[in-house]
Amino acid sequence: MNCNRKTYGTKLILWLLCGTMLLGVTACTSPDSPADGSDTQAAAPTDAPTEAPTEPETVDPEEAARLKEEAMKALYDSTEATLLPIGGFSTPSTELRDHNTGVEGSYQAAWQLVADAGLNYMITLEEWSSSYWIVEAIEAAQKAGVKLYYQGLDDPDRSIEFMKLMLESAGADAFAGIYLKDEPCYDDLDELGQHTQKVRDAMGDKQYPVFSNLLPTYAPATSVSSDYRDYVHQYIEKCKPDVLMFDYYPFAGGDTTPALIANNACAMIEAKEAGIPVWTFVQSSGWGGFNEPNQYQIRLNANLNLAMGAKGLCYFVACEHYPNWSYTAMINADGKTTKLYDKVKTVNDELLAMKGVYLGYTCEGVMLVNYKNVDRYLPKTRSEEFALESYGVVASAAPESTGKFLIGCFTDGEGGTGYYVVNLDSKKSSSVTLTFASDASGSYSLWTPAGVTDMGDVTADGTLTVALDKGAGAFLCVAPKAN
């Protein structure tokens, strides 16, 4: 999208004009220059009266602020949103199907709750056991405006059978693809590659995404081998997925964010080489030794993944599978929403308010600000190259007090750069000041859940301070200076 650069320059005119007036820049002729261009030493008498110097034009500060607000609103309103894939695992419980509740529309109502929370796709769970259930699920998804991925449980024949059922149903337009296997081990990859190709072949001319979900770095070495990056690489080589997806659940006590960053870095490097997007799970549940996250932790988890280049998110867990399931969920098996529902909806509203401006960019690495713990984790995934000291027009970044930040560094491939700034502290608001390089130039816009909240010129050795709430993120678009 490039922050809609084609309209960005025109929408900045008011603000740039305002800035010019504030600086007192005027176009005027020297009072000592004669109109005919003759020699000034011979033209002016020694006793000629001198004119008072011209005062620089100024503008009222309130008017300048108003013009800037109008320019920011015009940019935001003129930017077409790019939809961020936000999903959930898994679909509403079978307990809610109309024949179980005896209430007409109870199942559809649960799907509408999914959509109202900002989820635009779902991954199935129990639908594999009934051809009737899968058809009912996709038709309900269609009515709610939600896409559906069928989870094949590593059964290609069943996946093909159910795919055909869905594509022949009234909900066919909601079919999104096949999520073939959850968390394959290293030793599963050869067979999984064969299964993936079998499903893809059955699709014929109309291809849909086929992918699986990888184990995280904290999985036993017996499952992912002693070299995690090789596990990721071999999966891509053997299965050729359309999406590289993995889960990492960081809220198990203690600060596991550094290990999550290393996991993300490894996935991004391998996915970039393969030319495929990365989708990540976001922990929105509590179970076993994993703590149920609060709103700021969910926000941090989502923003961090996006700042490292993820192009899609999936909440785990979305819907309760059956009553008194061991996982807390957004929507229970009785169809009622929980406090988690409100937290996830709030985070999704924030993410979608940024209109997906970062999705048109490619992540090249991250700057870590006052956060050194990652250094000992990156070598474990052979991803040290992903940590950058500076990038593009940003030469350095300094936090307020003890603040900790991650800055995702992006390029749009056309000379523009982007910086996804995330407050890594889910307990305290903070700010970070970016210092531009000595040769920096261009124009910027700062995108936050509140819209475009700042815009202006990038100046050499200038600074820009970004203030962020707990776990929050913002995306800074920088367009190159027009020739």
Number of helices: 14
The major β-sheet equals: 8 strands, parallel, barrel
Percentage of residues in strands = 15-25%
Structural class: alpha/beta
Instruction: Round the mean pLDDT to the nearest integer and report it.
Output: 90
Strand order of the largest sheet: 1-2-3-4-5-6-7-8
Strand segment tally? 18
- Tell me which oligomeric state these chains represent: single chain
Q: Which descriptor suits the 3D outline? A: globular
- Approximate helicity band: 25-40%
CA-based gyration radius: 27 Å
Report, as a whole number of angstroms, the end-to-end distance: 21 Å
Low-confidence residue ranges: 1-50
Summed up, what is this model?
With 483 residues, this protein is of the alpha/beta class. It has helices spanning 5-11, 13-22, 40-43, 61-78, 98-101, 106-116, 131-144, 156-167, 189-203, 221-224, 228-239, 257-274, 295-307, 339-353; strands spanning 86-89, 121-123, 147-151, 175-182, 210-214, 244-246, 278-283, 312-316, 362-369, 387-388, 394-399, 405-411, 417-423, 430-436, 443-448, 451-457, 463-468, 473-479. Helices cover 33% and strands 21% of the residues.
Keywords:
483 residues, alpha/beta, eight-stranded parallel beta barrel, seven-stranded mixed β-sheet, globular
Folded structure, characterized:
The longest helix has 18 residues. With 483 residues, this protein is α/β, with parallel strands linked by helices. Helix 8 links the parallel strand 3 and strand 4. It is globular. The protein contains 14 helices and 18 strands. 33% of the residues lie in helices and 21% in strands. Strands 1-2-3-4-5-6-7-8 form an eight-stranded parallel barrel, surrounded by six helices. Strands 10-9-12-13-18-15-16 form a seven-stranded mixed β-sheet. A three-stranded antiparallel β-sheet has the order 11-14-17, with no helix packed on it.
